[in-house]
Amino acid sequence: MKKTTLLAAAVALAVSGPLYAGEKIFKTKCFVCHGTGAAGAPKVGDKKAWAPRIAKGIDTLLKHAKNGYNAMPPKGTCMECSDEDLKSTIEYMISKSK
Ligand code: HEC
What we know:
- It is globular and about 55 Å long.
- The chain has a single domain (17-95), classed as Orthogonal Bundle (Cytochrome Bc1 Complex, Chain D, domain 2).
- The chain starts with a helix and ends with a helix.
- The protein has 5 helices and no strands.
- The longest helix is centred in the first third of the chain and has 17 residues, at 18-34.
- It has helices at 2-15, 18-34, 47-54, 58-67, 83-95.
- Helix 2 crosses helix 5 and helix 4 packs across helix 5.
- By secondary structure, the chain is mainly alpha-helical.
- Heme C binds at residues 25, 29-30, 32-34, 38-42, 53, 56, 60-61, 64-65, 69-73, 76-78, 86, 89-90.
């Protein structure tokens, strides 16, 4: 029984990698705009809105997310986010939008 519990805990840890962090950041920081389309933000899940952005490549998207881009605020208001955090968040947003 104990072994099973440990194994379950190990599996849970393994899946809560960067993707999970990205999802959490998205829901707490980016959803206000990217979940609703507020301020003209490309909505997550809107394939048409994301296709031309995905085509720019992750490096450009990360740069824009970090420095701000038109109505997109620098770091998407997640001031405590590292580049790695922003990248995993963008990867999460992309994965839901293609
Ligand atoms: C205040 C609203 C707002 C918040 C909060 C916000 N965004 Fe945005 N975001 C925008 C808008 C508006 C655009 C579209 C900018 C444009 O293309 O003119 C955008 C565009 C983007 C793009 C595409 C940039 C490009 O080059 O096309 C990425 C990536 C992005 N946001 C990531 C994020 C992430 C990650 C977060 C959370 C950490 C976040 N945004 C939070 C408003 C927001």
